[in-house]
Design brief:
Helix content: 55-70%
Mean pLDDT: 87
Protein name: AraC-type DNA-binding protein
Number of domains: 3
InterPro entries: AraC-type_N, Homeodomain-like_sf, HTH_AraC
Structural class: alpha+beta
GO molecular function, one term: transcription cis-regulatory region binding
Radius of gyration: 22 Å
Number of helices: 18
GO cellular component, one term: cytosol
Keywords: DNA-binding, Transcription, Transcription regulation
Strand content: 5-15%
Largest sheet: 5 strands, mixed
Low-confidence stretches: 333-341
Shape: globular
Number of strands: 7
Length: 341
């Protein structure tokens, strides 16, 4: 099962806006994500990283270098309260250390760290735990957006000394030089960019001690609420994951959580979800896993996911992914494919 936690619609909105100029309907980018137009109009909507990754996968299929482009647009103002707290920090180093303190508010899929190397500081993104096929996209998005945040905080471009990436150099390598104007290394042991350590002591142009103290306290409270929601969602997901073949329903799940159905419905609403949406998400994740890793016939997978009819599973999978289950799974000998019918 993929790691999943709550995040905002920032990245999804950027994807949609980027492709809007090209005339691509947003439905194509949202396909299989469970995100609808109504969600986009709410400023407090929270989605799971799995939903975000579905939209990003749709975007990458259309344009492979989209991670660099999206990162270029992720200004510090996109991070709400945290962004204000960072901008009003006393020094550049104070701001970066504050950002590392609240990864949930930053919405990162990586473990971020500042690593000293002589006179250099490496801003490193490690421990990626999401969809393997989207790792390069997420590395590009992460490091490009961090560079933009650094530039915004300083009010000028942060001079880079080097940048390194674990993946091979892509065919659009020249675009890396636009985002990281410094010596580049691919097939490296880490994903990071380096700058001179003296920048950590650089006073920020928008520093304000009073505003910063107020914003930092609000970030602390927001982080408690946000991580609390993630813990609640994790508990719900864990319970449902073990019962996909016989889902308990909203009332049954509420009983297992020792709360009323009304309370559970309210919690899920606050998380930007519903019982059915969450069940569909977990079924979709499990279906993709079984279709990729197992050789079960389609009807067997349908039964394992709690569908009474194979046709119902096929229709649901098309709605989630845009393709039929037989098209999603790796090709197998013809005699095995016949048994699916």
């Amino acid at each position: 099962m993929l790691h999943s936690h709550l995040t905002t619609l920032n990245a999804v909105s950027l994807v949609l806006n980027t492709f809007k100029a090209e005339g691509l309907p947003f439905e194509a980018l949202l396909a299989g994500s469970g995100i609808c137009a109504a969600d986009l109009s709410r400023s407090d909507t929270r989605i799971t990283t799995n939903q975000e990754m579905r939209v990003c996968a749709n975007a990458v299929a259309l344009r492979q270098d989209i991670g660099l482009e999206l990162g270029r647009q992720m200004h510090v103002s996109a991070y709400g309260m945290l962004g204000y707290a960072l901008l009003t920090s006393a020094t550049f180093g104070d701001a970066l250390r504050l950002a590392l303190r609240y990864p949930a508010l930053l919405g990162t899929l990586f473990e971020l760290s500042l690593e000293a190397d002589g006179e250099r500081i490496w801003f490193t993104a490690s421990d990626y735990r999401e969809h393997p096929a989207l790792k390069m996209f997420n590395v590009e998005l992460c490091l490009a957006s961090l560079k933009v945040i650094c530039d915004d905080l300083l009010g000028q471009p942060l001079p880079l000394l080097a940048a390194r990436f674990e993946h091979d150099a892509p065919h659009y390598r020249t675009r890396y030089a636009e985002r990281f104007p410094c010596p580049l290394q691919f097939q490296a042991t880490a994903n990071a960019f380096a700058f001179d350590k003296h920048w950590l002591d650089q006073p920020l142009p928008l520093a304000d001690a009073v505003t910063h103290q107020a914003m930092a306290e609000r970030c602390r409270k927001q982080n408690l609420e946000f991580t609390g929601r993630q813990a609640w969602l994790g508990r719900i997901r864990q319970l449902l994951t073990t019962q996909l073949n016989a889902a308990p329903g909203l009332e049954g799940l509420a009983e297992q959580l020792n709360c009323s159905a009304r309370t559970l419905r309210r919690h899920l609403h606050n998380l930007g979800s519903s019982y059915q949406e969450l069940l569909d998400e977990l079924r979709f994740e499990r279906a993709k896993q079984l279709l990729t890793e197992e050789q079960w016939p389609i009807y067997h997978i349908a039964e394992a996911l709690g569908f009474s009819e194979t046709a119902s599973f096929r229709h649901a999978f098309v709605r989630w992914s845009g393709v039929a289950p037989s098209q999603f799974r790796p090709r197998r000998p013809i005699e095995e494919r016949i048994s699916d019918r």
